[in-house]
Specification:
It is a single chain. α1 (3-9) crosses α3. This protein starts with a helix and ends with a helix. By secondary structure, the chain is of the alpha/beta class. The chain has a seven-stranded mixed sheet, sandwiched between helices. It is 45% helix and 17% strand. The protein has one domain: Glycerol-3-phosphate (1)-acyltransferase (3-Layer(aba) Sandwich). It is built from eleven helices and seven strands.
Length: 236
């Protein structure tokens, strides 16, 4: 059985109410505190993860900054990635998403509720605008998630090249960077079946601005990718 179907069926009694509430938040974003919207999203995602027979092993929650805006940079394995991160990070987050994902029902409502941004990588001007907007949001204390590979690797636990431009948000806002290592997350929604599966999510040691100050965005990309690769190698 498709895992998404399993997630829905095992939570069928809460789906209508949770969906209605999510849509209401999305239509009236400014009428509700960000934390309230975020906690409802986490409620939905945590139920989905449990209902989908997913054993999500998480480490490093203590590495998530308690104050000020920061950037999360993660390897990208599949559709489950952003759901796993949102379900486990109690700090409200926005994300930079591919424009194709922004209009998918459910993902769209979450994106609106979290003030996430769709990015068209083929439109340089639009991409620069997104980077500028996220930079200002981080300076103002909000936090964002970016997948610097730009797309799912489709190579299991092997990573694609990290795009240096994704790190301009960090270098311009001078914020703390928190690398994330995802392992086996592609097995959740990017493979057929709904049998129990175990996946890993590791929040790695934060990289303060002082550690990467003076580096070019491409050099920061290399640094962050190396940290993530080290953790993946360690957990193989």
């Amino acid at each position: 059985m498709n895992r998404i179907v399993t997630m829905v069926l095992k939570n069928i009694w809460v789906v209508p109410g949770a969906w209605f509430k999510l849509c209401h938040y999305a239509k009236h974003v400014d009428d509700y505190p960000e934390l309230e919207r975020w906690q409802h999203i986490q409620y939905i995602l945590r139920r989905a993860i449990t209902g989908g027979n997913v054993d999500l092993k998480v480490t490093g929650l203590e590495n998530i900054p308690k104050e000020n805006g920061f950037m999360l940079y993660s390897n990208h394995q599949g559709m489950f990635d952003v759901l796993a991160i949102a379900a486990t990070c109690d700090n409200p987050l926005g994300a930079v998403l591919k424009k194709e994902l922004y209009d998918i029902p459910f993902l769209h409502q979450i994106a609106v509720c979290t003030k996430s941004y769709p990015m068209d990588r083929e439109d340089v001007r639009q991409s620069l605008t997104v980077i500028q907007n996220v930079t200002e949001e981080v300076k103002n204390g909000r936090s964002y998630l970016i997948f610097p590979e730009g797309t799912r690797s489709k190579l299991g636990n092997e990573m694609l090249e990290f795009h240096g431009g994704s790190f301009r948000c960090a270098t311009k806002s001078k914020c703390t960077i928190v690398p994330i290592a995802l392992i086996d997350c592609f097995k959740v929604l990017d493979q057929k079946g709904s049998k129990p599966v175990t996946v890993q999510l590791h929040y790695l040691t934060p990289i303060p601005y002082e550690e990467y100050a003076g580096l070019k965005p491409a050099e920061v990309a290399t640094l962050v990718k190396a940290r993530i690769q080290e953790k993946i190698d360690e957990c193989k």
